[in-house]
From TrEMBL:
InterPro entries: AB_hydrolase_fold, Dienelactn_hydro. SUPFAM superfamilies: alpha/beta-Hydrolases (SSF53474). This is Dienelactone hydrolase domain-containing protein. It comes from the Eukaryota. It comes from Entomortierella parvispora. Gene3D superfamilies: alpha/beta hydrolase. GO terms for molecular function: hydrolase activity. Residues 39-248 form the Dienelactone hydrolase domain.
Length: 259
């Protein structure tokens, strides 16, 4: 199940519009002192559960921002932080789409969990920023490539995450499921691989909350992010369902951690 889906490699971003509900903040990132890092923060400042959002390869796309804005106010609300991981270019260069090897090479150079990109340091800085603003429990959800980063963070013993996963996940593997230190929720689209076997591996662990897969058979890969257009009623309906599932799962793992 490794690699990006064909639709991720070959489909351009949609043209959409969304009025942001949050604001950008500066992040102080270890290992990256020579760069200025920003994160997009949204959600009620009184919430004590923090969500780290990891965008897809389209970066800060209006549909992806809308997804995290809406997740931030679902089911009681969460403080959500979406760092700009692609700080050099803001998104994958458009000319790489259609060339899988070059796209994967770029992601390796610009989106590695450890060196040289230090996505882990960016995530850690975002967590600490949320902690300073009153968050005491944390989950991490990503879209497409972002779900891979979420699962890599879920395996990192230095991270505090109670859940990981996200919609239209790419590059999911048995190893990721075996290494995850928390429950996982995967929301594949119609053209994503079957992830039921992966969730079964995750559920071999003795966790209070079981991992889940929910397939969306009527929408394409990327519908909550850079390939999404919620003027399409079916895409909007499925996006709202995905938000409901993630918010519900978040609240379940938080409550279980308190028990």
């Amino acid at each position: 199940m490794s690699g990006l889906t064909d639709s991720c490699c070959n489909t351009p971003a949609t043209e959409t519009v969304w009025a942001k509900k949050g604001e950008e903040k500066i992040l102080h990132v270890a290992n990256h002192e020579q760069h200025e890092h920003k994160t997009y923060r949204t959600g009620p400042k009184t919430a004590t559960t923090g969500i780290i959002g990891v965008y897809d390869v389209m970066g800060y796309h209006p549909t992806g921002i809308q997804f995290f804005d809406r997740l931030a106010v679902a089911h009681g609300g969460f403080q959500v932080s979406v760092p700009n991981f692609f700080y050099k270019t803001n998104k994958v260069p458009p000319e790489l789409f259609g060339d899988r090897p070059k796209l994967m090479e770029w992601l390796g150079a610009n989106g590695s969990y450890g060196a040289p990109s230090h996505v882990d340091s960016v995530i850690h800085a975002a967590v600490e920023d949320l902690r300073k603003d009153g968050c005491t429990h944390f989950v991490i959800y990503g879209q497409c490539w972002g779900a891979l980063k979420a699962l890599e963070a879920a395996a990192d013993e230095k991270m505090p995450f109670l859940a990981a996963g996200g919609p239209h996940p790419s590059m999911m593997t048995e190893e990721l499921m075996k290494n995850a230190r928390c429950p996982v929720i995967l929301l594949p689209a119609k053209d994503d691989p079957d992830m039921v076997p992966l969730v079964a591996i995750a559920n071999e662990k003795n966790t209070k909350i079981k991992s889940e897969q929910h397939r969306f058979p009527t929408v394409q890969h990327g519908w909550t992010g850079g390939r999404g257009d919620w003027s399409n009623p079916e895409q909007k309906k499925c996006a709202e369902e995905a938000i409901h599932l993630l918010a519900t799962f978040t609240n379940k793992v938080v409550e279980a951690s308190k028990a």
